[in-house]
From TrEMBL, chains A, B, C, D:
Keywords: Branched-chain amino acid catabolism, NAD, Oxidoreductase. Residues 15-189 form the 6-phosphogluconate dehydrogenase NADP-binding domain. InterPro entries: 3-OH-isobutyrate_DH-rel_CS (IPR002204), 6-PGluconate_DH-like_C_sf (IPR008927), 6PGD_dom2 (IPR013328), 6PGDH_NADP-bd (IPR006115), HIBADH (IPR011548), HIBADH-like_NADP-bd (IPR029154), HIBADH-related (IPR015815), NAD(P)-bd_dom_sf (IPR036291). Pathway: Amino-acid degradation; L-valine degradation. This is 3-hydroxyisobutyrate dehydrogenase. The active site is at 198. Pfam families: NAD_binding_11, NAD_binding_2. It comes from Rhizoclosmatium globosum. It comes from the Eukaryota. Residues 192-320 form the 3-hydroxyisobutyrate dehydrogenase-like NAD-binding domain. The keyword Plastid does not apply.
Amino acid sequence: MLARRFYSSVASKPTIGFVGLGQMGFPMAANLMKKTGSPFVVFDAFPATASKFVENAKDLKAQNQSVSVAATPRDLAAQCDVIVTMLPAGPHVKSVYLDAETGLLAGIKGRNNVLLVDSSTIDVATSKHVAETVGNAGAVMLDAPVSGGTLGAEAGTLTFMVGSPSVTTFNTVKDTILVHMGKNIVHCGTVGNGQVAKICNNMMLGISMVAASETMNLGVRLGMDPKLLAGIINTSSGRCWSTDTYNPCPGVLPNVPASRDYTGGFGTSLMAKDLSLAVSAAHESKSTVTLGAVAHQIYNQVSSQKEFKNKDFSSVYKWLNDNQEKI
Amino acid sequence: MLARRFYSSVASKPTIGFVGLGQMGFPMAANLMKKTGSPFVVFDAFPATASKFVENAKDLKAQNQSVSVAATPRDLAAQCDVIVTMLPAGPHVKSVYLDAETGLLAGIKGRNNVLLVDSSTIDVATSKHVAETVGNAGAVMLDAPVSGGTLGAEAGTLTFMVGSPSVTTFNTVKDTILVHMGKNIVHCGTVGNGQVAKICNNMMLGISMVAASETMNLGVRLGMDPKLLAGIINTSSGRCWSTDTYNPCPGVLPNVPASRDYTGGFGTSLMAKDLSLAVSAAHESKSTVTLGAVAHQIYNQVSSQKEFKNKDFSSVYKWLNDNQEKI
Amino acid sequence: MLARRFYSSVASKPTIGFVGLGQMGFPMAANLMKKTGSPFVVFDAFPATASKFVENAKDLKAQNQSVSVAATPRDLAAQCDVIVTMLPAGPHVKSVYLDAETGLLAGIKGRNNVLLVDSSTIDVATSKHVAETVGNAGAVMLDAPVSGGTLGAEAGTLTFMVGSPSVTTFNTVKDTILVHMGKNIVHCGTVGNGQVAKICNNMMLGISMVAASETMNLGVRLGMDPKLLAGIINTSSGRCWSTDTYNPCPGVLPNVPASRDYTGGFGTSLMAKDLSLAVSAAHESKSTVTLGAVAHQIYNQVSSQKEFKNKDFSSVYKWLNDNQEKI
Amino acid sequence: MLARRFYSSVASKPTIGFVGLGQMGFPMAANLMKKTGSPFVVFDAFPATASKFVENAKDLKAQNQSVSVAATPRDLAAQCDVIVTMLPAGPHVKSVYLDAETGLLAGIKGRNNVLLVDSSTIDVATSKHVAETVGNAGAVMLDAPVSGGTLGAEAGTLTFMVGSPSVTTFNTVKDTILVHMGKNIVHCGTVGNGQVAKICNNMMLGISMVAASETMNLGVRLGMDPKLLAGIINTSSGRCWSTDTYNPCPGVLPNVPASRDYTGGFGTSLMAKDLSLAVSAAHESKSTVTLGAVAHQIYNQVSSQKEFKNKDFSSVYKWLNDNQEKI
């Protein structure tokens, strides 16, 4: 139904708005703009960033694609049919969507066929609260957090985990918007479930990576060859993505951060953030996540150190290794 | 060299000894006896168990295969070319091999072509110490702990993780002995490395299973469908054996303990034991295994409860679920 | 300076407002009203609760002390010189103080000699943010969370941990307000530090109580008499409030919750809440609190169980004891 | 009874033996020798250490006190009425007491009035096993581990935690032996309970110290003055020996290791060892010690680092502080 409303409302190409042009948002917006050819409006808290985005788009403008900067999220919303947001944390999302003076919701008043897609990774409670408020105002908001990092954002190969009120809306958003920024687009159920899926996967991942690091470190210190040990685990019940695809021990796999001094990849601070979201969601829902909480503290500690704060999250192996007696 | 000695010494079929006829040892010994057709000698701390084993073998005896009970490990060793041991813990292994009066070593004095294979899961330090003592006496001991449980023992499909002083010896033992009890036989390096590989894999497994349980429980309590959540994780970076092959949440996978009230499988107490071995080995080698230690405490607690002590180790999911507010 | 403004502005008795008449706030407000004899205005989210408070005060009204209910925090603020708030969590505090339509701040516009005292236990970030906003509007807010439970609230013997912009203001608030509800009133430094002191003390307490429970349980299971063990620890370096004043093992001390089936005292859910605040504050300040995080998960789990959710926080001993093999 | 046997057997002064002249044993033995004036026999695994001990005692020899070195524990036992042992770990105790060729037990054959006192800190299981074996042979062994460190050993102010088969024996050993090396001598119940009391106290202590470090670090990073924070905690429910007597934050207390760069005191490695014993005893007795296990891993990690391995155990505060972002 909404999908029908949506299509009928956009005779030719819908106008697309993008809020949040950070390290992830900038390349995502660039891909979306180029691949859709839609009229495009952007907003960023730093006006210089928004100007730079438009400056970069002058080739497209030369081909008559409209690209402009809005003064506020509200102004942006007033011009757009579809809006994507990519923001650092819950309070930013709340403010960008709901601020009475400058928020997106204020800008779409009366037009209930606007689609809003939030790709930020934020706490489940805020995500559901904002979506509900948007819904009460007659519009539709989906949560669609991503994985794949800046490389995926640039290459347009992100994974989107999408919470959507209906399959039809999911399909509309997937086909007209997300497909231009990502490769793997998964429907996770109702609104908020995109966030749930992401923090669940990333909590599992964070624990597994610490576990893989502890295990590889223990085995090596007890005299095992690391490749041999990884081979045994990878054909046994200890197998996981962190051992068979992204092994944290240098030299075991060729093209992973561990084999290039932990550069590139997914930073320790981002893992600390995602584990914090998981621990908070567990507290809210009265769920126990003991290993999640310990992994969170470990990434808190590792990401606080100068040497590790800009390294890939598999560098927890190196951290263990540096902080122990040589044998 | 040893392999040559071994073969030249056994004109036709070597006499095989088996010490330790418990839940694992009994079916392992039965397979080995039947498939090799070798003269067979057994010993168990409970004479009735050894008698029962021989009683069960009367068909083979009728076909002229010799099967007998020894009074002590020493007496057994005195009659055998190859000896397999399957014992509960380090102190038993130490006593069975090294006791001055009744031990295996006392029984092979002067015959340095006897092969000893210990399939017990014990601490690395004891395993290396016993192997070294055996080696100093001129014989050869390999460690070859198993995974696969009682079902694998009965079906002859165990995995053996083997520490061996040489590839030749490994191949000899594999082809003449282990192949009759297992399917997947892995050379893990020098003596003691079988134990290292096993505790590393099982520490990784224990942590992963708790993590999978925390993750599935959190997601379900936050409103996700468990099959959908498992599907997303299993195609993402959180994927592991505990989510894609042995998922602890009932109903996600059809033929796993979780879907039959956690019966069968690998017991919580066995996981507690293996994690204890890992934590001890970490202490000895001054390695840090924080998640391993927490997982150990969790299995300690779960396996101490009447309801869970005989359940599969994936029942940590049920334990989490039972001990929380209903939503 | 502010103190001077405050006194000069209240010729005789200042009018006092109280927002939040829950299990703690109700008896605190009753003490404050009775002991000051000041004109009194109350607000609660449940109008029936506010009415009941006024009904209870009819004796005082008969003696001409004014006691009334306000329609909103804003209306309350418009009538008061001093306002005390006692609310469940950060979002409530934010809304009661800052809501543009109904908040306290809207009610004191232009009167910059109003004193606001928040006795809620909330997250440090919200506390500082609200105090700063109040300060920017020209008024003064102090944070003054309490310990001592409902018994302390009723007896007027609470401990207040107070963050105040100056010693003078602290003294004013202490002498005119807090002294009527508490016995031990501590200046913890600048605004927000009341919350910091409280969560630091309670994190230390939560960890100590779990530690005392693990220790007493271990010793008893290894054969020690619990009183003897407690006596040894209490004269040694393991001594703490949780062992020498509030021992969690039944029978060791006479007048503690442990010796009356863990009734009364400080509930497991409140400890879970305070540990959650500590873990969040640690995340915000990039501090590592590994034991704090594990204790949080343990209280999360314990307080989720029907049997323990209304028990004193020392019942973690019973929880350990119930969940283990009998010896 | 034993006490009577003991006294009647030693007409004048009993001959005392001391095995294990390490950093603790050497000054303990020196005090015992000087204060009793008894004939003295020593043994150490390093003959040079034993010789040095005798060399140091030449003044006493000049006054006709007999001081000599025995070739083995067995030879020592053959000459002594009372024997004190101070050894690094369980295996050493087992070997020194029970070795068939060279052990103490072999040296006291037939003389069932010899008293043996083991002051080593070892695992409970070994302690009980050795005591039982000694008892079966007709002699009596007490466990009497100490706290107080090398300073206490030198000053003769150690605390002894004593497991003894009877109060009479405890009193005999206390009055004739332990009082010369220590100040606080506590009867903890039956044999083995000295070890239990010690590991329980030290587990409580290790957890408390990590907790105090996390708490002080968190409070300081949130803006509290450390002395003020310590003062508040020390008069509240978070109070413990690690905050009020041995605070790990530099500058809070004057005469503690924290205020002299963590020199002196009780080393991180010793705490790692004691926590390891506690975790093992918990495993043996199927007790859960989650915080104990995490504290163990933390001390494992800290004591493995060059910078901390020779520092006092309160340096975990500095470790936390070094490994985090500066604020």
